[in-house]
Amino acid sequence: MGLLSLGTPLPWEQAKELAHEVRQHGIEQFLHIWRNTKNRQKDRLLWGDEIEYMLISLDRKNRRARLSQRGHELLNTLQIEENEMLNLANQTGEKPDLEALWRPEFGRYMIEGTPGHPYNSSVFDLTTVEANMKRRREIVASLMREDEMILSIGSYPQLGSGDFLEPPHKANGQFSRSLFLPDEVINPHPRFRTLAGNIRERRGSKVRINMPVFHDLNTPRPFIDPSIPYDRSLFPGDKEAKEGAARPDHIYMDAMGFGMGCCCLQITLQAPNVDQARRLYDQLATVGAVMMSLSASSPIFRGYLADVDCRWNVIAAAVDDRTAEERGERPLAKDRFAIPKSRYGTIDTFLGSDDGLFKPEYNDLKLVYDHEIYRHLVNNDIDELLAKHIAHLFIRDPLVIFEELLDQDDSVSADHFENIQSTNWQNVRFKPPPPNSPIGWRVEFRPLEVQLTEFENAAFSVFTVLLARALLAFPDINLYIPVTKMDINMQRAHNRDAVINERFYFRRSSPADVENTVAELTANEIINGSAEFIGLVPIVQMYLDSINVDEKVRRQIERYILFVRGRANGSIMTAAAWIRIFVRNHPEYKFDSVVSSEINYDLAVVLDDIANGRRPAPELLGAGNTV
User: Fold this and answer.
1) pLDDT digits (tens, 9 = 90+) for 256-284
2) Cys-Cys link to 3, which of 185, 422, 495, 606 (CB 3.0-4.6 A)?
3) Which residues of 481-507 are buried (b: 16+ CB within 10 A; e: fewer)?
């Protein structure tokens, strides 16, 4: 989770009056950071991962698996020990010996774990990632009750469906006003409930999330969800479902929690300097969709099989705070811009770098940006591409403003900048150094779905890091495609079994026709190579061949590379495909798209067995790979 401050959050009616002030100060804070760090050089290639977990309570007698609100309790315990060690380190001046760091996420049942320290730039360090991830699971497990488990899966199948929460609560909360989710699923930190409420208030209605249902043999056509309480009249927004917000043949969801209650795997990479961070940002953005298709793990929403495999569009709709005017449904009158996308989505503009590969035609999307902010940035020596990027982020309003943090010294604080930067959730994020910090320019890679096991999460993390290092080591590698093609790729990546059935726009390695540099390739062709493109795996292997790698280290890394190869060529199935097959083969499944509480329980138990090595799953992990 991004910026997480303590204080008194302002309700939307007060916060919106301060939005312009926060934007102004945020830009000044960015300019101070830029002046102080633009010439920074030779930062180490440090990196880290974030894995999000769900805590689940099992009722074995009644075959129920419910999301547990004790996740927040466990998080508090984990952070007490962490803070004690940090305080001791501050007193002694020694480096704290932390195995992991723990952070809250939107769901009260969620826990985010990261390594206790960034991984360093050595190749050997890549072989320690899986062990660190396993240790994080062990640390959380040591605090669990006998009837609890943690799972790292993209979406919880029964979130918002029936008896899904322990302890149970009615869906009647003031913040979400959801027909399905009680506010008790939200982390009690004041930021999260305020986010949910302010998104709804700013938008002028509840969010509208509709994922296409998977039409099985006995699924009604059209599918009209019988579980929606169409006639509830507790809040004014309750009528929206009946008035068209809930679409036929779709799974309808109506609250931020359905998106931000999903889990993911994210990787943050530090670059040596700002130009190389810009190169990583641009080049990694183009591979986001295909990597998401390889990692797909979210085929069930609100108790129904969906005709998609990923959670990305659910989150995009869940945080879509645009008003009707901004969405283009009404002419602009009160609002400043018509905005084509949610604040969660693919990037809208490349940054360019000193590699000389960027061309203006790659930014083929008509960019919406604040022209006044853009002129101010340019007048303060920010180049055009970066100025437009920042001015584009700042068309958004700050969603949560803490009263105590309004007055800041812009020369030493970045809170107002991060307030808006951290709530532009894109497939890659360009992260300036914090003020007065040893941390450098970074890029966050965000499209990966979290995996069930540490082996899978380590494989995707290590592969992403090696690809990033190859992109820096070989500056002539050019993966640019038009920005609008990335949007198409991301939508295709959602589709069921996209990794084996879809084609993605990607740049040819050496096009004979220089006017036709982009082709539609399969995930296998992009990852493993073809006549059109050398392949991301061969690029990574070229990089490993170019450096001195110990034979034992190389063997472990090759396990991860072979796994990624297998996911791309279809010989190793995605978690989404595995889960869908499990449900459809379950003896209690009626081929009507419904994932019952009993099926959900059996699925949770089996997934936990796989995650903890009690059940082999070569079809999911690859032959010879164990947990």
Assistant:
1) 999 999 999 999 999 999 999 999 999 99
2) 422
3) bbbbbbbbbbbbbbbbbbbbebebbbb
